[in-house]
Design goal:
Layout: H1 2-12, H2 17-22, H3 32-41, H4 45-52, H5 56-65, H6 68-89, H7 96-109, H8 122-135, H9 144-150, E1 158-163, H10 169-182, E2 187-191, H11 196-205, H12 212-217, H13 222-239, E3 244-246, H14 253-263, E4 267-271, H15 285-302, E5 306-312, H16 330-336, E6 339-345, E7 361-371, E8 377-384, E9 389-392
Parallel strand pairs: 1-5, 1-6, 2-3, 2-4, 4-5
Antiparallel strand pairs: 6-7, 7-8, 8-9
Length: 399
């Protein structure tokens, strides 16, 4: 049984040994002899192999099957099977209180290996963290003023970027993902509403100088072909060292979780929340979004990764500055996010001076609406719609 091999594989690697003391060989079916040998000679694979006269490669295969996230479910499945066997064999005259007590023991046993340990050396650990911050450069956003407010992009945090349609949240997150990769940090970029070629085309257009219309038709001038070659060199630079990993259409939460565990990135950028899926059924959209944001926050914490997530702002907030209350099904987003950034395109009729602003050069307010460990505020930017790029208009210096 695979569950038994996963459990034993963990023990052979030195994990969850408290559980080994509480489970008996009789609890196992196909691997009963191996568990008995482990209780006699310990977890040394050579000694177990010699005692049972089995190939050491059989034990090595079990260690290869072990995964931390599978271990808990394997233990629970084994205990549940044991509980069902007990209920099927219990005599009819057994007191109900005795049965209830025994079932409570089974229920407690299903938590083996999953109980957290208390944090230790709090003061010393914090000093180490301060020392790390002094030595390491912060991973910066693409806007200096945003770094001034937020101090860079941090792991273990869920940052939600919200805007109504066509304001630029996808462009904002793609620009952030490229900035992370250029700082020699690995980022997983998951565009759930665009193809790979659409994404690359936006990267190519970010420096300007090439007609969007001619790119789409594949009819470039000689000068534009030369510029395209230079732009593609920029794309290759972002890809260098496999720091920018793009996964088209990967909207399964389980698959994203596995990608993070395999590639161990600094950040994962997801565009966007409404496209995420999971195998379970949800009562409504609010229930679905609550589950997704909760799981993404857990992913950020457990895998020490920064999660950047795009979310939709209700269309009712089209003219006024959006707030957290305008995020679609906002309750869970507001609760689970460490940081919330809202993008607001300022209507031209609200500007005192409209010189230089048009459909291509758009005034966009970048609002740090929530920051769990910092201040909030707004940043004035120019969004070049033809380049899918934000430009800082304030350039506040770090203090």
């Amino acid at each position: 049984m695979d569950e038994e091999k996963i459990i034993i594989g963990g023990w052979l690697l030195g994990y969850h040994l408290d559980d080994m003391a509480r489970l008996e060989p009789s609890d196992f079916t196909s691997c009963r002899d191996i568990v008995g040998a482990m209780k006699d000679v310990g977890t040394d694979t050579f000694r177990i192999s010699r005692k049972l006269n089995i190939p050491i490669t059989d034990l090595a295969e079990m260690t290869a099957m072990y995964q931390p996230y599978l271990y808990g479910s394997a233990v629970r499945q084994m205990i549940e099977t044991k509980a069902k066997t007990y209920l099927a064999s219990v005599p009819g005259d057994t007191p109900v209180s005795q049965i209830a007590e025994r079932l409570a023991e089974f229920a407690e046993a299903t938590n083996m290996g999953s109980l957290p340990k208390p944090a230790e050396n709090l003061a010393g650990g914090y000093l180490e963290e301060i020392d790390r911050r002094m030595k390491e450069k912060p991973v910066r956003w693409m806007l200096p003023s945003l770094d001034y407010y937020m101090g860079g992009i941090r792991t273990k945090e869920l940052t939600t970027v919200g805007a109504r349609p066509s304001v630029g949240k996808s462009a904002f997150l793609l620009q952030a993902a490229q900035a992370i990769a250029r700082q020699d940090k690995k980022v997983l970029y998951l565009p759930l509403e665009m193809s790979t070629m659409q994404t690359v085309e936006r990267m190519v257009q970010s420096k300007g100088g090439i007609s969007q219309e001619r790119l789409r038709r594949g009819r470039l001038t000689d000068e534009e072909w030369g510029k395209l070659s230079i732009r593609l060199d920029d794309v290759r630079e972002v890809e260098k060292g496999k720091n920018f990993l793009l996964f088209e259409g990967c909207n399964s939460l389980a698959a994203i979780r596995q990608l993070v565990r395999v590639h161990k990135p600094f950040a994962v950028v997801i565009d966007q929340l409404t496209q995420l899926t999971d195998d379970r059924r949800f009562r409504d959209k609010r229930d679905q979004f609550s589950f997704m944001t909760n799981q993404l926050k857990r992913l950020a914490m457990s895998e020490d990764v920064a999660v950047l997530l795009a979310a939709q702002v209700n269309r009712s907030a089209q003219q006024s500055e959006p707030t957290m209350a305008n995020l679609k099904e906002s309750g869970s987003i507001e609760e689970d996010s460490d940081n919330i950034i809202l993008l607001h395109e300022i209507p031209l009729d609200q500007l005192e001076d409209t010189t230089g602003w048009d459909g291509t050069n758009r005034p966009v307010l970048v609002k740090v609406e929530k920051q769990r460990d910092g201040r909030t505020g707004s940043i004035k930017t120019c969004f070049r719609a033809d380049r899918f790029t934000f430009y800082d208009l304030e350039r506040s210096s770090d203090e």
